[in-house]
Amino acid sequence: MEITGQTQLLGVIGYPIRHSLSPVMHNAALTELGENYVYLPFPIAPQDLPTAIAAFPLIGVKGFNVTIPHKQAIMPLLQGITPTAQRIGAVNTVYWTEQGWRGTNTDGLGFVTPLTALDRDWSRVKAVILGAGGSARAVVDGLAQLGCQQIQVVGRNVEKLTQFQQSWSATDFYHRLTVHPWESLPTLLPEAQLIVNTTPVGMTPQIDQSPLSESFIQQLPRTAIAYDLIYTPRPTHFLQLAEAQGLTIIDGLEMLVQQGAAALQLWINRPVPDTTMGQALQDYLQSNGSLAG
Ligand code: NAP
User: Fold this and answer.
1) In this predicted model, what pLDDT tens digit does every residue of 156-178 receive, in sequence order?
2) What is the pLDDT of residue 291?
3) Cα(163) to centroid of ligand 1, in Å?
4) Which H, E and C letters describe 275-288, residue by residue?
5) Quick one: how far is CA 180 from the chain centroid?
6) Cα separation of 63 and 11, whole Å?
7) Gap from CA of 199 to ligand 1 centroid (Å)
8) What would you report as the CA-atom Rg of the chain, rounded to the nearest whole angstrom?
9) Cβ–Cβ under 8 Å, residues 23 and 280
10) pTM for this structure?
11) What is the largest CA-CA distance in the chain?
């Protein structure tokens, strides 16, 4: 990639930001496309967020991703928010419009993209989601858009689960969403066609842990899909156990790639090489795996 006087800026804001994988995949795609952009990490402390957002148009930033801790805090600083970001309650992508900055969220789309490649009648699928944190919100929204019959969210804190459920009360899929304590799993698992881990259990360095024990995984139908949002290690212990039972498995790398591909497409307004983005990430993780997060 040659940086010239016409090079335009894209990037990701967060604090800290040094472990972000986004620059690796976005710059790989931009280079392949021959687009004269560079994608940079911007470490922005919470108290500097309004100043940074106001300054971005002045220095020619054309769009940016948003990560922890700014995903909610950025919302009042933007001129518009898409319905998707409103429902999820977080912004991960910001793009420039005639009205100013507009925030959206591509995590739900990134999550469902590998699922849409599978031959399933989603209107008959009961999904079980482990965890009710930030990423579970994108998963719920993605599954609702996919048309899942029932979305069952399982968590260990009943108060948080109730709040989680209430936060969706204005959506047209509220009646398809239920929340359950961890103890309900023996009743839920035998009917689950999709099980999603959105907890950090099993992530590097705790690679021997699984959110579900082997005996719980054995209760899932053999036709079920096991999906883990974690992408280090690949595959997780949870996915290894599921694969041993004959289940279809999906790890978190493709979600990471597809949420990024959807953002890049918004900024440069043309199809983007998602395979190149995935390959760049795999290469990077193989040589720097323990550093990435
Ligand atoms: P988060 O907001 O902190 O939520 C984590 C959830 O997991 C919470 O509901 C938490 O419950 C639950 N949890 C944590 N430890 C648990 C345990 N030992 N047993 C049961 N539940 C537990 O985190 P997040 O942002 O959603 O991220 C979660 C995972 O997804 C991380 O591993 C992250 O790397 C991954 N992720 C991947 C992608 C991707 O693109 N592939 C995108 C986003 C996130 P409490 O509230 O009770 O603590």
Assistant:
1) 999 999 999 999 999 999 999 99
2) 44
3) 16
4) HHHHHHHHHHHHHH
5) 22
6) 7
7) 3
8) 19
9) no
10) 0.96
11) 62
